[in-house]
Specification:
Blueprint: E1 4-7, H1 17-22, E2 30-35, H2 47-56, E3 61-66, H3 70-79, E4 84-88, H4 95-104, E5 108-113, E6 131-135, H5 151-163, E7 169-173, H6 181-187, E8 191-194, H7 196-199, H8 204-219
Parallel strand pairs: 1-8, 2-3, 3-4, 4-5, 5-6, 6-7, 7-8
Helix pairs in contact: 3-4, 6-8
Length: about 230
């Protein structure tokens, strides 16, 4: 099975975003954290920067919207050039309608859950999604320590995906590094957002390759992946 590594530009040098994007062109996606200082206590970037990034790199953009009123704003990120748009279920009034709108505009639809948000109430929504994001830190800031208490939630989510026979990517975001990625892969994740573990490395491209290799070695023998 293939593991996907999505470097987070939240950990990159914002004054050199085009160069930082090129430094990880071997990555599967470029993870773009959009924060509005309302849904989370931090302010990062918005539609104009996403438009510029889309022109600056051939790596598809994975936009993670940590913003209020996701129903209103998420479709604009598809129009800006994102190949995947993640909205938080806590910020969406009509998540099924929003996921369908994102898909209709030509992007992959993804839904994120904060650490305290359980997956079980959303089991029936999973078929409407292309990816589910389990936050492994509280959203809002990069560089936080990985929350091991999220591993059972990742396992339960993978079990639900398997139960319904879905081709749904399971992404983890927060504290993913060489020290934690194997635990995430064993629990059922197959898409990994890594910020400081990539951009804090002397060779970001090599860091991407090393993380992917670590994850795939675990996935090759993980119980959930056998026969997938």
């Amino acid at each position: 099975m293939a593991a996907q590594i999505n470097p987070s530009i939240l950990s990159a040098d914002f004054a050199r975003l085009a160069e930082e994007a090129k430094a990880v062109e071997g990555a599967d996606w470029l993870h773009v954290d959009v924060m509005d200082n309302h849904f989370v206590p931090n302010l990062t970037l918005g539609v104009p920067v996403v438009e510029s990034l889309a022109r600056a790199t051939d790596t598809p953009l994975d936009c993670h919207l940590m913003i209020e009123d996701a129903d209103r704003w998420a479709p604009q990120y598809v129009e800006a050039g994102a190949g995947s748009v993640t909205f938080h279920v806590e910020a969406a009034a009509a998540p099924v309608r929003l996921a369908r709108e994102i898909r209709a505009k030509g992007a992959r639809a993804s839904m994120a859950l904060k650490p305290a948000t359980p997956i079980e109430p959303y089991e029936d929504l999973l078929a409407e999604l292309d990816m589910l994001l389990i936050m492994t830190v509280e959203p809002g800031f990069g560089g936080q320590a990985f929350l091991d208490i999220m591993l059972p939630k990742i396992r339960r989510t993978r079990e639900l995906i398997s139960k319904h026979g879905l081709e749904l990517w399971l992404q983890v975001d927060g504290g993913v590094s060489a020290e934690t990625i194997e635990r995430c892969a064993e629990a059922g994740a197959d898409v990994f957002v890594a910020g400081s573990a990539v951009y804090g490395a002397s060779d970001p491209a090599e860091a991407v390759r090393a993380l992917r290799s670590q994850a795939e070695a675990v996935m090759a023998r993980a119980a959930w992946a056998c026969g997938h």
